[in-house]
Amino acid sequence: MNEKKLAKALKEAAVNNKLKTGFKEVMQYIKGTKLIVLSSSLPHDSETRLKKVAEENNIEVIKYSGNSVLLGRLCSVSYGTSVVSLKNVSEEEISELKG
């Protein structure tokens, strides 16, 4: 996974208000989501639930190797977040991010 491209996509989504952070918010606003990014500190049961919902809705999932604090920094937010969803990513960007 290309971390610079991921950071760019996350910052762009945050600026355009197309970014949802946190498990509850991501689950609540799953409709229209194109990509979900999971941190390494997301609990296993939550990860399983998210992956199941993502599969049902044809949403790509990327596992980020950093913890929730690092994922929060990539999103330009002042708090850690274990999961992030993006709505404004193209299929091309998703394939680049998945590497």
Automatic annotation (TrEMBL):
Span of the signal peptide: none
Gene Ontology, cellular component aspect: ribosome
Pfam families named in the record: Ribosomal_L7Ae (PF01248)
Domain Ribosomal protein eL8/eL30/eS12/Gadd45, residue spans: 5-93
Keywords: Ribonucleoprotein, Ribosomal protein
SUPFAM superfamilies given in the database record: L30e-like
Name by which UniProt lists this protein: 50S ribosomal protein L30e
Source taxonomy: Archaea, Nitrososphaerota, Nitrososphaeria, Nitrososphaerales, Nitrososphaeraceae
